[in-house]
Amino acid sequence: MVKKKVSEKKETVEEQLKLFPGFVAFTEGKDELNIAEFPIAALANRLNSDIKTITYEDEITDAKTGELVPRKLVITGSDEYGLPTSFDDEVILGLLNLSRMQGFMERVVTFNRHQIIAVLGWSNQEYYYDRIKESINRWLGVSFYYDNAWRDKGEGTWESGGFHLVDNVTWGKNGEPSTVTWNEKIFESFKQDNLKSLDLETYRKLHSPTARRIYCFLDKRFFQRKHWKFDLSHFAYNKIGLSRTAYKDMAQLKRQLKPAIEQLEAAQIIMPCPGEDRFTMITRGKWNIHFQKFLKTPRDPMNIEIEEEESELESKLVFHGVGRTQARKLLAQFGDDHVKERLEWLDYRIVKKDTGGIKSIPAYLVSSITDTTFFTKPDGFNSEKEKVDGEAQKVAGARERAQLAQREEQEKKSRQEAVEDEMRAAEKFYETLPKQKQSEIREIALDSCMFDSPAIRKMLVFAKVAEMLKNGDLMVS
């Protein structure tokens, strides 16, 4: 019985291969640039079913305007299938390359599951056939919401919007091929050739999802330059997709990334380096991670200038005409807070159209940073810190007034409760007095009373009893 099942499985695979006689396990692949920039799935095999949304954020300098663009990607999953995992991420890469093999002629890509397995270099096991079907079904229920995070190559702009990667799927029966229909948005990006080359042979050698994800991301970045430095937590959470809840501190992140990095070194994707050079501490709880593209003839590391992602302040200085090298020196010498304040001065003068005396904005900016005595803040200017401090003072004042009012209300309530206790005690004492004494007290208490209300008259009597007890005119036996 078992032999028969194995034989049937072998025949099924052979039949599937015959459906696509032109198929070969090619090595020169492609990756979509937007997908390479942000992870489209969590870097895990299984996710908590209660979690239906993951978010990734960063900032980038727009090449046209020089301004910083905040970007955000929100991914939501369906109740039935949940959020995509690292396995599902790779299935999309497999489908993309099968679609490319078919020339991106139409949104519909025809495939069998063995082809996806061959493209990605997985073992030919029944488990993968079942998981591919589950994965594509999951993608049908996954929504992407891009906020300034989807690059339209045709327009050259960062776009906002939402869509699914996959619109529908048809599963073939009895060995027939299946089909997946791409969403118009992602297929438009394919047609615009918003793609980068990806060495699938190298990709297949990496056996962990973390290593494969890092490879796809760095492979895109190494096209721009050979050396990169990233904030470790930003890199791990927003670029690779590690869980913020599973890996909460820097030590955990480094331990999780280390095996993947070793794979990348062994595959000659990045240059090997000691751990103390791979991870460098900036301040307590803040680390950087360094990568250098693998070089067959490595240069002297002492002569390598390590490039890094621009900080927000560096980008602003460059935008106003300050050279990048000088911008970094200014930040290193005078600190972020000082440079930020001088940038705010300039922005304020530009908004107020008070730049008549400035012949050169870059020169003014550099001078205002380096000359700490001659340059003073513009009239009427309040820095962001001063605004925050002012708002904090307002909040503190409002909180203090609220606490005072609360104390006064509490004191008022306490006084009222004391009076009520006093009246109840007086009433109780009054009822113990002889009738003659009660009559005398009523006569004194109601001598000038103008009200006929029994409740008011009764209250006046008890008030008089309370007064007499205080003054010692009545003694509690």
Q: Can you offer a commentary on this structure?
A:
The protein is of the alpha+beta class. The protein folds into 3 domains: 2-205, no CATH class; 312-381, no CATH class; 386-471, no CATH class. 50% of the residues lie in helices and 16% in strands. The chain has helices at residues 2-19, 33-37, 86-101, 113-120, 126-140, 184-191, 200-205, 209-221, 232-240, 250-266, 275-278, 312-319, 324-334, 336-351, 361-370, 384-430, 435-445, 454-471; strands at 28-32, 53-61, 68-76, 108-111, 143-152, 157-163, 166-170, 178-182, 195-199, 227-231, 279-283, 286-292. The strands form 4 sheets. Strands 2-3-5-6 form a 4-stranded antiparallel β-sheet. Helix 3 crosses helix 4, helix 3 crosses helix 5 and helix 17 (435-445) crosses helix 18 (454-471). The longest helix has 47 residues, at 384-430. Mean pLDDT is 82; it is low at 1-14, 16-25 and 301-307.
